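Bug #77: duplicate submission created two jobs. Keeping one. Sequence:
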Amino acid sequence: MPPCAGSLLASASEARGPPITLSPGFVLSEQKKVERLHLSRGESLQSPADRLREILTVLGEEAAIMLILRRTAIGLVLALLVALPATAQDFGKGLSAAMRGDYATALREWRPLAEQGDAKAQHNLGVMYSKGRGVAQDYAEASKWYRMAANQGRARAQYSLGQIFRIGLGVPKDYAEALKWYRKAAQQGYAKSQGALGVMYSNGQGVPQDYVLAYMWTSLAAATGEKAATDNLDKMARETTPAQIAEAQKLARDWRAKHPEKK
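Kept job's structure:
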């Protein structure tokens, strides 16, 4: 089976196996992240329902998935979902169903949201069609939903669309198109896209080969803990001169200075 684009569902549970086991302090730590974010902005702390909404929207779906999978916290999560708007409730129901392997229910909850323009739901439908989960695998349909979400600025969808074109999933390989979508997500601070840009510059795919820009983008991704980027950075360091590395590091510092919220 060829590699598939999309990361949301796969990142939490690649197979339909048992739920992921998490440390008892996971939920508290995620809430504290939200609290620190608001304190850093000089804002007051939120209600529990608002905290969950932040986890859904600020920290990303992966964190929400972990909350839902955490057995000791599931009662709290479900109770808090009641306080959320109907669309968020439907999204949460779909998320919970997907993590149980009940993709038919997930599809039923997410499709109406996606058709109404919800970018997260659009991206998730793209993942389901790309992976063939609950539907026949269909890269053209996956691309359609990814593009809808990507056009709304959804970084994960932009990365997934980049994967579609770089690998050539249901479409001819198109490095220029892949580069365009990777760059959009990378500029938002999405580490996987930053790492992908680094690889493309290193290999000269869709762009002239440029070891400085390759090292710059890869180092930005590696700084977030992205493992593939960390591994690639070590390899690049052996192929890049000290002067090139210094220039790349300066470019990375400049990028961070212009995008302080993406650090």
